[in-house]
Design goal:
The chain has about 90 residues and is mainly α. It contains four helices and no strands.
């Protein structure tokens, strides 16, 4: 859930402060916390895969936002990230 919160929180910080780098810091911190938690729960290889998915979700949210809007895009990728994290963690 940290990763999903990081995607929503990072965008929120950037949007409400008007400072995209500050949103990036929030996104990166949450990603680091999530990666550390995943590493402890599912091991390093799966944690690395989930971290890669986190980065891809962030990157993918941008073109998706052009099609469906910024907030719907953020919530869509955050939901996908939460689902992926849950699936991987529940099978560990």
């Amino acid at each position: 859930m940290v990763a999903a919160g990081g995607l929503v929180g990072g965008y929120s910080v950037a949007r409400w402060t008007g400072k995209r780098p500050l949103g990036g810091v929030a996104l990166a911190v949450a990603g680091g916390v999530a990666a550390r938690q995943w590493g402890g729960k599912v091991g390093v290889p799966k944690a690395a895969a989930l971290t890669g998915l986190y980065v891809a979700a962030f990157g993918g949210s941008h073109p998706l936002a052009k099609k469906i809007g910024a907030w719907p895009s953020v919530f869509a990728v955050a939901g996908g990230m939460a689902l992926a994290s849950w699936v991987v963690e529940s099978r560990a």
